[in-house]
Design a protein that fits this description.
Layout: E1 2-9, H1 17-32, E2 38-46, E3 51-58, H2 66-70, H3 73-77, E4 83-88
Antiparallel strand pairs: 1-3, 1-4, 2-3
Length: 110
């Protein structure tokens, strides 16, 4: 399995973190949920620092082209990510969470 980190510096973009939250609610969460080989994607932001990004967990490197089929982020933000990094997964642990699922967690959903 592979982890992929994608970051944008939004300081030169015309979109805000709030605009991108709408993209998550209205399109991206559902679209990405259909990608084969993607175990998990979590989006994150720091509005004060104008940073937007995502972490992916992929079943294998051969699936990492999936975002090219569904992403609208480059179109919305106006330029490609500032940074992209890929790492092999060494280990994972799942804790005893108070939440049943991840799909509607986060600031984009309230």
């Amino acid at each position: 399995m592979y982890l992929q980190f994608v970051l944008w510096d939004l300081s030169k973009s015309n979109v805000s973190v709030e605009d991108l939250r709408g993209y998550l609610r209205d399109y991206a969460v559902e679209a990405y949920s259909q990608l084969p080989g993607m175990r998990l994607k979590m989006w994150f932001a720091n509005p004060d620092r104008q940073v937007w990004g995502a972490v992916y967990l992929w079943d294998g490197a051969e699936y990492m082209d999936g975002p090219a089929r569904v992403s609208r982020a480059v179109e919305l933000i106006g330029y490609p990510p500032t940074s992209v990094s890929v790492f092999e997964l060494e280990a994972a642990a799942e804790g005893n969470s108070a939440y049943d699922g991840l799909m509607t967690l986060g600031r984009a959903f309230g």
